[in-house]
Design goal:
About 45% of the residues lie in helices and about 15% in strands. It has about 300 residues and is α/β, with parallel strands linked by helices. The protein has a single domain, classed as TIM Barrel. α6 runs parallel beside α7, α7 packs across α8 and α11 packs across α12. It starts with 7 loop residues before the first strand and ends with a helix.
């Protein structure tokens, strides 16, 4: 069986991982998390979101976060930008990449951003144009690729359709998000198979949530199919404010452990990653959601 020789991990903990927290999180804590993640070897970090803090209060202070991180050469610090105002704020703060998002579910799109799928993509056209003028990479997210909290099962053909629209509009990479974690390897296979007929596999990513404990199995199936980009969140933090019951993203530590076991290059120092996880879990007052993190904390890194 042929796996990719190397995998890119996109760390979404500082944004997607923290946005669902009920407690406020200081700028200092966010900056410390991002710096420790970069020190662990992560080269693609979603560092914040320029949304209205009225809707996602945990993302308040993103300007200060971007201004205070200790930027490392070769690391991309991305920002989620829902509209042109958010894009302009992200540019002023020094984001090196922006992300836009659509859904494969009409109901989820209405609940999440109060517009249809078509309208949401139309809203992002000015961002794509402005980003292209500044030679800034834009990443696209597609939510609810396996299921929707309002519609139920989502067709793989709809996922492929929406993904292709984002790709044709100028997104260099499209991340397929199992927002509520209902996906199984068979579902992920269908989605990836259809979508990769429209978009090169090298420009697709999987964003897995672990609600039903299927995230690692889903990633393994995607690896078998040739996918080489995966989103994950330190300590398994995350969820979705608009998807009740959606537990955290797959833990970065668990993905790294899987890749190491398969002999796939990832460039991440696991002991340093565990240190980053302990730091943010201490701030949040909780244990890590990573199974590998719990098992390895006492064996790999004595100072955590």
């Amino acid at each position: 069986m042929k796996f990719p020789s190397a995998v890119k991990i996109v760390e979404v903990g500082p944004r997607d991982g923290l946005q669902n927290e009920k407690q406020p999180i200081s700028v200092e804590a966010k900056v410390a998390l991002i710096n420790t993640l970069a020190d662990a070897g992560l080269r693609n970090i979603e560092a914040g979101s320029f949304v209205n803090p009225k809707w996602v209060p945990q993302m308040a202070g993103s300007e200060e976060v971007f201004q205070n991180i200790a930027r490392k050469a070769g690391v991309s610090y991305a920002a989620l930008t829902p509209n042109m105002m958010g894009f302009e704020r992200a540019m002023a703060a020094g984001a090196t990449e922006v992300a836009i998002f659509a859904a494969a579910s009409e109901a989820f799109s209405q609940k999440n951003i109060n517009c249809s799928i078509a309208e949401s993509i139309e809203r992002f056209a000015p961002i794509l144009q402005a980003a292209q003028a500044q030679n800034l990479p834009v990443r696209g997210y597609v939510s609810c690729i396996a299921g929707c909290p309002y519609e139920g099962e989502i067709s793989a053909s709809k996922v492929a359709e929406v993904s292709d629209i984002l790709f044709q509009a100028g997104c260099y990479e499209v991340s397929l998000g199992d927002t509520i974690g209902t996906g199984t390897p068979a579902i992920i296979e269908r989605v990836v198979d259809l979508t990769s007929k429209k978009i090169p596999m090298s420009q697709l990513a999987l964003h897995a949530h672990d609600t039903y404990g299927q995230a690692i199995a889903n990633i393994y199936r995607a690896l078998q199919m040739g996918m080489s980009v995966f989103d994950s969140s330190i300590a398994g933090l995350g969820g979705c404010p608009y998807a009740k019951g959606a537990s955290g993203n797959v833990a970065t530590e668990d993905v790294v452990y899987l890749l190491s076991g398969l002999g796939i290059q990832h460039g991440i120092d696991l002991p340093k990653l565990l240190h980053a996880a302990q730091g943010i879990c201490t701030v949040l007052g909780r244990e890590t959601h990573s199974k590998a993190g719990r098992a390895l904390a006492g064996t790999l890194c004595v100072d955590i």
